[in-house]
Protein 1
Amino acid sequence: MEVSTIRVVAWVLANIFRNKNLTLTPEQLKESIATLKVLVNYRDEEVNVDALWALSYLSEQGDEEIEGVLREDLLPVIVRHLGSDRSQMIVPALRASGNIVSGNDLQTEAALAAGVLPLYKQLLRNTRRNIRKETAWALSNVTAGTRGQIQQVVDEDLLLDLVIDQGCITFFNNLIFVRYQAHHAETGITLIRVNVGMLLLRLRIVKMEYRQDFIRAEGGTRTTYKRKRTWALSNLTSGGTPSQIEALVAAGGVEALVTVLGVFETSVVTVALEGLDNILAVSMEVSVPTVSGTGPTRFKKEYFAMVLKQLCGKGIKGLCIIVCRGGCGYAECGDKQAIVQKIAEAGGKEKLEILQRNTDETVSNKAKGLLEMHFDNKRDNSDESDNESQEDALDN
């Protein structure tokens, strides 16, 4: 058969399966998937792309269709195309794999066993926003799964990549401080804390794609991308263990969720509020043992090692020799006050005060509840009253 004819067949199938109301008998489903298996392995890229799109549309139909794809052993082919260097091949493969991980727990586990997570990690760093968006969506389905599946996301060090656009500068500032001794003529030796994130940016140590991520953390990203990543983070706070939530906090998850509070899409803000509420709820229920540092801050050695590993993987090998003499700290899952402080330092309290007057009742109630439960508004108001009384007394 002519290649041109095969291309037409693949294109037609892709358009047929694009119909969301399509109903197939078990036999038709089996034959369709068998045909797609031939097409996705065909020696023509155009045919492969259309066959992958057809698989993505088909797997979107439901668990039965996903099971058919798995039975025909098409998952390894989909995963192979995830590693392609051509975006027209990556996007449909990414959509198909995302549909599979959105299936039941066994189907999600099959995709994880096939090795999607390391590829998702690479794709979160892709220069194309739509690829990063689709990857974040796929990961949101994984973090909505079992705790074992969430743990695989944590073990793959994917949390840092999930938050890096929104919270990377704060992440570097909170997790790694370069401290050095500077002699001052009058005060003697002074400890100076350097803003590592901005230092790397200004010295152009970070690779170009990561420098762009730093800039996006300041300027924000499109709401669709934020929405997908916010779901991934919030899902983890809903179904994860305290240690998994602690890993998210260590990766800058609190700052990333606070950043989302400033967008105008109600559904995204609601999900971010739920994520923060879940983190704070866990912080009140558990107490996590810590390793004391030599200075006023405390840190866990394993997380400091994780950070260095992440930095080394990004080509910033010079930072791997940093020694934090004063201790490198982050807010722990069992330290409610530290979490509250992180929210406040990221501008979260001000955003919550604005959101409590939001016209959407769900958003306003959630914001008001967080303020009343975790931020001492009454004390702030009494302090203001005391200040006003003192000013009146001085005027008199």
Protein 2
Amino acid sequence: MAVWASGVLLLVIVTVVAGDCPEGRYGYNCSYQCHCPHDYCNATSGCQPASCSRGWSGPTCQKENVALNKVTSSSSIYYLPSNAVNGDTSGDDETRCFHSAFEDSNITSAWWRVDLGNTTLIHDVIIYFRTNYKVRRNGIQIYIAGTAASPTDGVNCYNVTGNRDGTDIPDVLTATCSGEGRYLVLFTTTVNNDFGGVKVPIMDFCEVEVDSCTPGSLGADCDNYCYREGVCDYVTGVCPGRVCPPQWDVLVSVCDVSSYGTKCSKLCSDRHCKGDKSGCDPLTGQCTGGCRAGWDGADCTKKCGNSYGEGWDYMLSRSTSVMLADMVQTVSSSAQRDTAREISLPVTT
């Protein structure tokens, strides 16, 4: 499994111990729970096929809709805000969707909020819009918040933009909205109406999924794995403190022998290594035999500047460099230029 971490592609090799697990468990030390019928739960690889239980999705059923049946609130109510977290994704009947009020001409904004119950690492948000009326899709702002003090107190992680009539916005919109918080808020000040002379912002949508990877899983579909007990970063897969427990290895091994560094963007041949440089460390590009004279750094790509010798061993101060230049000029202009002179270079330590 390959993941990006701190700009470097890491290959996480997981040693899965197959064997007998309790019913509904699988993977290393039986650490993972199957979120599908037990008949489809393989003790090694999990759900086979992905017949996920209600509220779960992804190839291995490890992506959870943490908003399902949670407590909701809204700026006003025409149809219940709880309609948007009941699991009904059909969009052709507005009475089964959330709909804010619109009779009050003093309305300047509309919002909808779901309380996830506790601080949650949010992976993405999916909005199921009404399919029989599209004009209110444009202008929705999505926020992740730690408190319910104000609908816009959190981090604005996504904005829905498109034509005023909403025709270029899909019926099912997946928003990359990664962050950590207890509340997810949809907010708008946009007036998108084409009937009855209504001039206030209105919100209507049928379902909002807030997806989160289970502890120990990561990736776009939460179908890759990391160390379960030490709950890894759900985006990068990095373990706390970057320390792997026994039987788990992190290997930087994606770059081939000719490249290294962030996205393998640096060439080993551009280094100034002493000796053979046909290969190099795929993370740092370190020259195992040291650097040629005048170059320094782990990958020997940094010029030493006012220095000489191998590996920047001998540093010249700026004043020493100026003095040396003056001495050379004096020697060059002297009438005694045919006289051999030996200039000793002062060394600073």
Protein 3
Amino acid sequence: MGDKREDGKVYRPALEEIAMRRFRLRYCTATDTYYMHGNESVCRQLAAVVGVEEGAWSIDGVKRLMDEAQSETFLTSARSGVSVSVSWKIDLSGCGLVFETVRVLAYAGEQNGAQIIFHLSGDNGQRCAIPLGSHENISTDELFGSQTLTLTAYLSEGPSGQRPRLFPCSLDDQAFCPLDIKATLKTQRRGHDVPYVGELLVGLQFEETRDRARSTGRRTSIDVGIKSGALKVHIVQGASLAPLNMISEKSDPYVKCYLLPDAGKTTKCKTSVIKKELDPTYNEQFSFEGTATSDLQQGALEIWVNDWNLALKNTVIGACRLSSGLAVNKGKERGLTSDDETARKASQ
């Protein structure tokens, strides 16, 4: 234990945390367990990762030690005469959010000459260093706009070989978390050429089955061994949508989506219309059955947020396409062209 390891665990926000724009990660030394949960409860059912090494992004010369005489457990140096470190990483990439503020509550034991220094760093070169006393409550907005957060603890022995004690915890106190990372999150804004028109929270899940039914002309065949299944789309809620009714300063938004390629628009799914609302809650689910894994790699999921209008043509509020390639829609192959971009000012 305590050997050098890098490129380990990366924490990402859950769907609920994305919706609430908050993230929390805690570590309990007594149970040697990491927790990802917004409330104050700590129980085994909420465990995210068990084991300090399993839950760390990198670890070099740090081990968990138990002092049975004092009925205490803590993290400390596994090697003498050198500085050791352990770090944790949080990544928001892919969810459209960035860090706004970060608060780290950390505890350390009496050092007696030993030293512990915390480094917080982001992906834009932001960095701050904080010496850790008996406990520290670190609040910073210096990581504003970053999609990643890396917290690193550097542990150094004292001049007479005194070992540092990081995150000390009584063996009997299994509800105390001497490391508590809290962050508020903010929508990642795009460039000035793409106007901000709101946000849409969408959940995706692919459930794989063994075989796939494939239609070829008038015949239907079963291709054994081709991985396929159901792509499930959960339209959860919108937020801060653009108001298109200048009188009420509201919109009547609904969401529709297509699984491309779809020349005949047979995969179209649509939510209900929510009248006069800029923060609509839909909580509606759709399932695209018989979707092959190759369809996911080569196709696209296109999502539109429209403003419903009884008398006039419905107006596009915003849209996005979840894909890395081209897709077929309305009988022609295309990516997101400049003309499409004008009609679909992308919302996150």
Protein 4
Amino acid sequence: MEDERLVLTLSIRRPKPEPEPEPQPPRPPSPKNLPPPNHVPNHVPRPIRNRANPRQAPRGLKPIEIPAPFDWATTRRASIHSLQYLLSAGIKRISGEVQCKRCEGRYVIEYDLKTSFMEIGSFIRANHGLMHDRAPKHWLSPTPLDCRICRQSQCVKPIIALKKQKINWLFLFLGHMLGCCTLEQLKYFCKHTKNHRTGAKDRVLYLTYLGLCKQLDHTGL
């Protein structure tokens, strides 16, 4: 009996504990489960776009409206108020700056708005058919004024702003001095008044005179 107990005692042993498995690193997601490159999660709010202001030009373009450079000019490029508006506002004389090429003196001269406009309008109505859409010679090459400072003759010309949006169009028009503008400046006027702007200078100058006449009085021509 004692031998059987001994054998039984020896045969009953506690099993050794199995070692715990080492933790495995997480597997990367399968390419099939990855979201597309341009995927936007539903919970990400989209930026709110501001409504475009109709008075503002798109980015990269010049603004539609500008500060009025003169009392007789509007806030649009190459645009002036009508004759009726100016007279009702008490604007009866148009001024501009000139300079003598000899003494280099600078001063301001004025033109009577209504009188000067009627003079140009009458000339255009009387000679419209003879001009053949071309500016006459005295428009194309205006005679310089006499200097009030040094008293020299034919040596004074208008001072034309380098920045086109600041050109005093009405002053040059009333003084028959639009021909002192360069072809590029005249094309600028025609561009912003939606006029044909190709061709020689006498052609573009003619359109500039007509354009300003129509801005002052669209029923006159």
